[in-house]
Amino acid sequence: MIQPARAIGWASHLPDEVVTNDDLERTLDTTDAWIRERTGISERRVGGHPPSMAVTAACEAMAVAGCEASTLDLILVATSTTDQHLPAAASRVHDALGANCGAFDINAACSGFVYALVTAYGFLATGMKRVLVVGSDAMSRIVDWQDRGTAILFGDGAGALVLEAGGDGGLVTYDMGTDSASRHILYCDVGSKLQMEGREVFKVAVRSVVDSIQRALKAAEMDAGDIDVFVPHQANYRIVEAVCSRLGIPCEKSVNTLAHTGNTSAGSIPVAIAHALERGRIHDGDTVLLAGFGAGMSWGSAIVRWSA
Ligand code: UT7
Description:
Elements: E1 3-13, E2 17-20, H1 21-27, H2 32-39, E3 43-46, H3 50-65, E4 74-78, H4 89-97, E5 102-106, H5 112-125, E6 130-138, H6 148-151, E7 156-178, E8 186-187, E9 195-196, H7 198-219, E10 229-232, H8 237-247, H9 258-261, H10 268-278, E11 287-294, E12 298-305
Parallel strand pairs: 4-5, 4-6, 10-11
Antiparallel strand pairs: 1-7, 2-3, 6-7, 7-12, 8-9, 11-12
Oxa(dethia)-CoA binds next to helix 2, helix 6 and helix 7.
């Protein structure tokens, strides 16, 4: 165990406005059947504002934790779609909560939440007691709604987790990496729209996530059979299936919110964690595997022994 910690609060938030595949059929050369078959997505939420979604998820997670904001030692927000160059979205979460700790953002695109979570455990290892970790992205702001190669995939959402040092569970191990030579296959210039070579991203995603999880399992002296719950980045259900099949993890162990959320970037994994917890799919003592990937091309895996 690298760092013992309990998850004492969690929450997710999705904006109200729903865009279904049928809606997209009316504006794009695509079909509901194609989108569901090639991605597993049926609908996504749009109209989100990353700092506001982060605030809502953070406030609810703090209410579940039942602790005062003054007891937080750090606020981390993973986002790549926030609306100001500065200050950080974390500053708005800090203000809304009335916290008096440090607060900053992390941008590792869709891998952002895993990176922020590992960073949080790192700060707990240096003596902090409580850290709030949030992932929040509004991909609807940077997607070109005329581009069927990307518009079908993305959505908006946020999730938050409050970690407290101590307990029987915590971070068992992690792996992070970046293939920076491939950064041109998925990017968004400031003030412009997201550009993606979908097929290439798909290949890099499967390869990098499988390799990363294998490294994390090896470092933990575990094998795929030790994983109780797999929380993958929600990008395309075919990616989840390919990763599960290559690693020998039954797909039933994976948590999937994708059908109703699309890819919410840094929001995706914490939304899926909250979804799984609310449905009793994660129990104390479970070995939970988290794996994210995205622009960079970045990837990150974390193996967590769950303790609430
Ligand atoms: O966080 C990381 C974010 N990104 C990802 O994870 C994206 C990873 N990539 C993907 O999910 C998939 O590559 C896509 C869903 C983007 C595309 O699926 P694909 O199975 O790789 O399709 P493709 O690009 O190989 O295209 C197959 C066919 C093409 O037609 P032809 O050339 O065979 O006639 C495309 O023009 O499907 C066509 N196509 C579509 N047809 C209907 C591409 N997009 C669409 C569409 N609706 N939306």
